[in-house]
Amino acid sequence: MTILMAVLTVNTMAQTIKKDSLSKIPLGSRVDFRMDFSNAMIHDRTETEFAKYEKDWEIDKPSIVEKFRSSANLVLDKELKFGDYPDADYQIVITVKSITTNGFMTCDALLKNKQGTVFFNIENLKGNSDSFFTPGTKLARIKIWAALTGGALGKMMKSRL
Questions:
Q1: Cα gap 66→126, rounded to integer Å
Q2: What is the rounded distance in angstroms from the CA atom of residue 152 to the CA atom of residue 96?
Q3: Alpha-carbon distance 63 to 38, whole Å?
Q4: How far apart are alpha carbons 153 and 71 in whole angstroms?
Q5: Model confidence over 46-87: pLDDT tens digits?
Q6: What gap in Å lies between CA 125 and CA 101, rounded to an integer?
Q7: In sequence order, what DSSP letters do the residues of the chain get, joined into one string?
Q8: Cα separation of 141 and 104, whole Å?
Q9: Over the stretch 31-49, which tens digit does the pLDDT of each residue have?
Q10: pTM of this prediction?
Q11: Are strands 80-83 and 29-36 parallel, antiparallel or unpaired?
Q12: 121 pairs with which residues across the strands?
């Protein structure tokens, strides 16, 4: 029942682009990439609670972030380059809102420059898949959905560059 409610709740949140000025960013720009789980509900737990429940969370978290970032970069095909670029003119922050027990991820994305001008903002970003069933361990499912969600972000952004 909990899984069904989580799936229904996730499905009711529409992806909404709040700001889109990506065409103003020079192609090939480096973008500092950050992913924030601090306010996420992961398997109906806070990140701190989930880290106690899933002992490998802190070990696997960097690879989850990398799966998301790599998938977005693969789709963007160097038109924008997400990475660890603290001195870049642009930064994107992915704020993870929830991760269901199947690994399904919902997040917000905000891309702005150093002056604070917002170039892209989407709420309730989700990955794309034909099925809500994802095989594997808890963390393996999260990695799969991180890649799917990063790819969805890359596709959405590429279409607006």
A1: 17
A2: 14
A3: 17
A4: 9
A5: 999 999 999 999 999 999 999 999 999 999 999 999 999 999
A6: 17
A7: -HHHHHHHHHHHS--EEEEE-GGGSPTTEEEEEEEE-TT-EETTEEHHHHHHHSTTHHHHHHHHHHHHHHHHHHHHTTSEEEES-TTSSEEEEEEEEEE-TT--EEEEEEEEETT--EEEEEEEEE---S-S---S-HHHHHHHHHHHHHHHHHHHHHTT-
A8: 8
A9: 999 999 999 999 999 999 9
A10: 0.89
A11: parallel
A12: 19, 110
CB contact at 8 A, 68 and 127: no
Q: Say which amino acid occupies 121.
A: N
Which residue bears the tokens 């960013």? 25
Look-up: residue for tokens 């790819």?
A: 151
Cα–Cα–Cα angle for 147, 62, 117, rounded to 5 degrees: 75
Give every CB contact of residue 23 below 8 A, 6+ residues apart in sequence: 160, 161
Count other C-beta atoms under 10 Å from residue 132's C-beta.
16
- Using pLDDT thresholds of 50, 70 and 90, give the confidence band for residue 131: low
Structure tokens at 61: 């978290």
Bridging pattern class, strands 41-42 and 29-36: unpaired
- Tally of CA atoms within 13 A in the half-sphere of 55 that contains its CB: 0
